[in-house]
Amino acid sequence: MKPSCRKQSGMTYAEVMMAVLLLSILLVPTMDALRTAVRGSDIHTKAAIDHYLLIAKMEAVLARPYSELAALAGDESIATSLSDSVISSDGRSLQRQVYIAPHDADNADADDNLRTGVDPGIIWVKVSIANTNKSVQSLVIE
Fold it and tell me: What is the DSSP string of 57-88?
């Protein structure tokens, strides 16, 4: 009997196993990258929520009359009575701390300290989330 001279089509078992091995090797870093992207998305969502809460509180503080803010101005490291607690849209309980202090805009006393030699009619306002580095600041002019 003569061997068949026909060209065979299809894949051998070894070729299939090599393809599966290559796909497996390539999927591991791809899945790690996807996992990192999902974690980054969650972190970004929390940061966006926190930023919104900070801006909302800052707007509420800045809407108050200058005279009221001036009466609350004091030490920049002591939170004022305008501070509050809020529940974020993702269920976290956050403390928004409001700091108000006089401001030295022109540095006329040349000590490079923004809280000494204060200029009348200028107040510094800071809103931060407790135990984080997230904050927004503004100056209020009479």
Answer: HHHHHHTS-HHHHHHH---TTS--TT-EEEE-
